[in-house]
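Input (structure):
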């Protein structure tokens, strides 16, 4: 729990409280209502016994006791129904809380997967761009080498043609000079 964020800790605490409530533990409105109804019924019966005229004390106590027992039994039944409803509601809320937590986990996992895919794609794209740049660089270098080689070849051919012309001119001049002799 130490590394978890506060929201996750609150979510866990809520789930634990709902779990306890669904098992009949923890605060209960039904229990409080039963206790209040029982206290109220006892007070009412004591008041009725005190105000009875003409009945013997034993009979009044007996009737009051029976009435209180009947009323308390009815209140206990209603309280048990309410307690069951509380537990069912807590179970439903627990299921909703767990489902929302799981949906959040799935959403975070999906987001993490999407981000990983995005970064992998970006890395592949960058690698491809680097590869294309290297190819272009090598192309420029080889294009420059070819161009330089072509320039050298053109210079060599030009020099060869000049030499050939010079040799030809020299040969003609020598031939002309030999004829004149």
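Output (sequence):
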């Amino acid at each position: 729990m130490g590394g978890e964020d506060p929201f996750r800790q609150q979510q866990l605490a809520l789930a634990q409280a709902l779990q306890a409530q669904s098992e009949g533990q923890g605060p209960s409105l039904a229990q409080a209502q039963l206790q209040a109804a029982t206290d109220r019924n006892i007070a009412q019966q004591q008041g009725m016994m005190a105000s009875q005229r003409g009945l013997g004390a034993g009979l009044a106590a007996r009737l009051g006791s029976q009435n209180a027992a009947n009323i308390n039994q009815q209140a206990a039944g209603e309280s048990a129904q309410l307690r069951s409803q509380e537990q069912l509601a807590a179970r439903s809320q627990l299921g909703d809380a767990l489902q929302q937590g799981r949906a959040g986990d799935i959403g975070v996992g999906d987001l993490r997967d999407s981000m990983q895919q995005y970064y992998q794609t970006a890395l592949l794209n960058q690698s491809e761009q680097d590869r294309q740049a290297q190819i272009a660089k090598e192309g420029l270098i080889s294009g420059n080498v070819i161009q330089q080689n072509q320039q050298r070849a053109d210079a060599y051919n030009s020099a060869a043609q000049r030499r050939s012309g010079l040799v030809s001119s020299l040969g003609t001049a020598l031939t002309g000079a030999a004829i004149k002799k």
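Notes: The mean pLDDT is 79. DSSP finds three helices and no strands in the chain.
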